[in-house]
Amino acid sequence: MRLPRGFAEWGLAVGTALVALFVALALAGESLVGQLAVSNVVVVDGRVYEVPPLLPPGSRLTVGGRELVFIMGTDQLGRDVFARVVSGARFVLTVALLSTAISAALGTILGLLSGYVGGFLDRVLSLVMDSMYAFPGLILAIAIAALLGVGVLNISMAIAVVYIPSYYRMVRGVVLSLKSAPFVEAAVIAGASPWSIVTRHILPNVVPQIVSLLPVSFADAIITEAGLTFLGLGIEPPTPDWGFDLNKGRQFFLAGYWWIGVFPGLMIILSVLGFLLVGESLNELLNPRKVEA
Amino acid sequence: MGLKEHVLYRLALTPLMLLVLLTLVFFLMRVLPGDPITMLEGKNIPEEVLARRRAELGLDKPLHVQYVNYLYSVFVKLDLGVTALERIPVSYLIATRLPATVDLAIAASLVAIGIGVAMGLLSARYEESWFPQFARVYSSVVYSIPVFYLGLLLQVGLARPSGLPTTGRLSPVNMVALDSLPVRTGFVLIDSLANGRLDIAADYLVHMLLPALTLGIYLSGIFTRVTYLSVSDAMVQDYTRAARARGIREWRVVTRYGFRNALIPLLTMAGLQVAALLGGAVLTETTFNWEGVGLLVYEGILKRDYAIVQGAVTVYALIVALVSLVVDVAYTLVDPRVRY
């Protein structure tokens, strides 16, 4: 885009700040807010108090001489929305990290193999990958997530499958363009083994391209995760998760208890936006002439 | 290769793609835990009942036999099978649900392309103002909004205050009226208009407004960018400069000369977005209880109803293949220089 250079720098700054915030929340959020995220029971001096459900944002509650403030209100089960929103970062970011790692690793390995070996293997793999690429990814992810059941690894794998073809296609393309490059041919003539050609001569040229794809891929993973958990897949209550909270609180949200839905949704948007801005701004600043749609 | 050969070649590739996807889904659904009977009856049903029910569905046969039988019925008999529970033909189910998804997809595409082209053209026209930056932020933000969240926000923010319907495709009374109409194609708009029931058509459009806006806004960011990039590329070319030199007004240069440059990229993007459109439709249909194929496949997955999921996958794959074929043919119409 022909926008001022400062625009990309600004985007990078905002994106980095958002990413830093969410990483911090994922690491420390749970210990900051404690039990309030998963239960409505407060214990003060050995006495048990129950927080009422659907308190509006800003509500104050005095239990056993201690004042609790619910800046984002409480949900339909009396749990603190702020606590859930803060500690929800951990599940999403773990899933995004795992799924991006799995798809990048598998896509790269298959792409290297396909591009370098060529022939029949390349044709079959390309057909499989192109078919998956053209197919609505979310539907594939829903099917896999529903079949695998709940769990961090299960939902991560369901998301990873969708994005393997993107990495595969990119890596395969780079390998094909490098296969006949002079430095690779020189290595072949010098008697280098296929393994060392792929790992020592081709892979280093693929890595920067993979890295440039990572932030946007991360953003996509977060949004897919939210879609899956919104459908109630891949996660078990009471784990705090933004998409899942929107799913469970949907009826109350529609009935007018807006704080139950608005805050988890905002968290999804801001976290996706953070990674998206970092990815896009970096690409723009590093390759100013490469214009991407 | 001429256009005809290219089309035939692409048509020949479609069954291969379908084979890959069906194989993937077939083995995924059978290797992973759960089958239609245990999902329905729970895990504690008597062994002999389980065995009998599985035999009825052909689930007792070895996996490779089931696989070959399945492929034979899809590719040779062109039969998608029946549902596990009610034994309803899947092709019938899909035929009743597909029009809703097609309507939603078309309406959402119109919204997405309409917003995208308008914002892209305005950005290119007012390049020096704040508008391109606003459009850029807009497209990043709508990309980041989960489509179901947008749907819920519109339900609360727009539908509740204005009294627009939030769920369903028609008011109950019109649902009944629709069933008794003499001319039936399954497409509500066509049926109601063909039978002179303007009220049903209007009711349908009102119900479609929010789902179409939701899915359309969600996809509009990418079209904004494509339009802006291609048009602003054209705005520094010699032919647009020449047009300006001839005294043609700037807005006309943008829409007539610049916009032509965006047609091919827009077409490509529209083709590429079909997968996102169909995926987003599942979430939109769930949010608005819009009874299309997306809702059907989601329920099918939860019930482990192999036949429904495989049938829907077949239909999705055919839609994707068909659209990319149409896009290829449309290239030659938009740009006569394109040759296959």
Description:
The complex is a heterodimer of chains A (293) and B (340). Chain A contains nine helices and four strands, in the order H-E-E-E-E-H-H-H-H-H-H-H-H. Chain A is mainly alpha-helical and 293 residues long. In chain A, the strands form two sheets. In chain A, strands 1-2 form a two-stranded antiparallel sheet. In chain A, a hairpin with a 2-residue loop joins strand 1 (41-44) and strand 2 (47-50). In chain A, helix 1 (5-33) packs across helix 2, helix 2 (81-117) packs parallel to helix 5 and helix 5 runs antiparallel to helix 7 (194-230). The longest helix of chain A is centred in the middle third of the chain and has 37 residues, at 81-117. The mean pLDDT of chain A is 90. Helix content of chain B is 77%, strand content 0%. In chain B, helix 1 (3-31) runs antiparallel to helix 4 (63-76), helix 7 crosses helix 10 (198-234) and helix 11 (238-245) runs antiparallel to helix 12. Chains A and B meet through helix 3, helix 4, helix 7, helix 8 and helix 9 of A and helix 1, helix 6, helix 7, helix 10 and helix 14 of B.
Highlighted features:
heterodimer, A: mainly alpha, two-stranded antiparallel ribbon, 9 helices, 4 strands, 71% helix, B: 340 residues, mainly alpha, 16 helices, 0% strand, globular
Topology of this protein?
The complex is a heterodimer of chains A (293) and B (340).
Chain A: H1 5-33, E1 41-44, E2 47-50, E3 59-63, E4 66-70, H2 81-117, H3 119-134, H4 137-148, H5 152-179, H6 182-189, H7 194-230, H8 242-254, H9 259-286
Antiparallel strand pairs in A: 1-2, 3-4
Chain B: H1 3-31, H2 36-41, H3 47-57, H4 63-76, H5 90-125, H6 131-144, H7 147-162, H8 172-179, H9 188-194, H10 198-234, H11 238-245, H12 250-258, H13 260-272, H14 274-288, H15 293-302, H16 306-334
